[in-house]
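Can you make up a polypeptide sequence alongside its tokenized fold?
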Amino acid sequence: MQIASILSHTPTWVWTLLAYLLWRGVRALRAREISPSRTLVLPMIFLAWALFGMFAELSNWAAALMAFIIGIGIGFSGGWTNATRLPPASFNRTSGLVWRPGSATTLVLVIVAFVTKYLLSVALAMHPDLGADTGFAAVFGGISGLVDGAFWGGTVQQFRSAFAARAVSA
């Protein structure tokens, strides 16, 4: 199948999601204040996308889920470690917002996540039998877990630093 054909058969919502993810990634390049709930949007999107993909697109979801759990643990650790290298987040009691430093991490993660998920979905569309393949399911789940874990690790570490500073100043 040619690339043009693959791209033309991609649903519009996929390109809309890519635009939204890139927009969020570019915004994360600079320091900003954001509500604690909005900070959770990208980790939740990737968690829902991963779980939906595993249960809807794979018949061997057990292998995918096992790899996802392992991947999320590894990714969480990496995301946490990366976030500790950034200036600490802080909580503004007056506005109720969390100040987060700018970083390319979010942009890199959304690009890696989107490209890998897209390629895996294209492979499944072209070869539906891969949904039952244990190795493919493990790769699918593992990559999803790594990326989502990195989002969660960085977010939790930034929350920890923001609210630990709040407790000290109280």
